[in-house]
Amino acid sequence: MNQSDYSFSSLPNDIALRIASSLEAPDLSSLSCCSRAWREICGSDCLWESLVKERWSLLYETVKNPNFKDWRGFYVNRHEEKVVQAASVVTLVENCSQFVSLEVVDYLQAIECLKTMQFGFKDVQMLLLKSKLSVLLNLIGLHYCLNILRVPAFRTVEALWNSQIAGRQFSVQWWKPGRWFYGFRIRNESHSRCLSLEDLAMAKDEEVLAILEREAIHEILTIARISVGNYSTSILQSSQSSQ
């Protein structure tokens, strides 16, 4: 059997289309560069319409029209818009943490930005759950998926492993104000946790998510630190709400 036996022309159109339909957008674009025949099949509107529907289901319902053409162009334009929006969140976090410290208000602002921009799970997975970004940004993306999008744990864990960031470690440390005892206030209680992103996704310590959520706590001085290997960075800091 020679090489020509494996050419595109030897594949029935329905088989070729099924192969292409199993791919994500980046792989589909790469396959389209292989030949003119694959470029034609990979540019099929039915493939890109399916990708738009999967990634932006709510948006798809608003633009769905049997006469609509160029779903690939729609997908590319929308993706580029999300890339710009994600870059603004990255810049926000980097600017706020330039002195290796990020106030909790800035942490939550980044999450609120993702919510306002209507990021979906695929958007976060493709643009924030990436190994080349800081663990802080991974954590923000993961937190958004868990608490805002309510993505099931098994899907977030799968996304973390696919991006090779599941084992990234971070530590959270916080203080609870000491109780009053016979007119004297006992010293603040120190608490800390060391978790991986996968641990957080699997809710192995729900108290940490409550600390990061901030709305779930009152009168608590919260300081969280993120650690990567020998690199430790203070990422969340807030003052006692009662003061």
TrEMBL record:
Residues 5-51 form the F-box domain. Pfam families: F-box-like. GO terms for biological process: protein polyubiquitination; SCF-dependent proteasomal ubiquitin-dependent protein catabolic process. SUPFAM superfamilies: F-box domain. GO terms for cellular component: SCF ubiquitin ligase complex. This is F-box domain-containing protein. It comes from Hibiscus trionum (Flower of an hour). The lineage of its organism: Eukaryota, Viridiplantae, Streptophyta, Embryophyta, Tracheophyta.
